Amino acid sequence: MKILYAHPTKEKGDRTCVAFVDVELNEHIRLYGLRLIRQPDGNHVICAPQAGHRRTSTFSQPDGRAAYRDGA
Hints:
By secondary structure, the chain is mainly beta.
């Protein structure tokens, strides 16, 4: 996993949003606009984005489908 982008926030409270992050799970899957939340017990969790009009994920195209699309 690779962090593509992280934007810290200044929220405070029991469940603090520490940052918004974009991550690449592998070369084929990327997730955007995730919220990194610090729980009251100190653990961290990722919450789904509220993306509005923005994309939330991308996936690479399988090789066979790319060849089909290109007329091979």
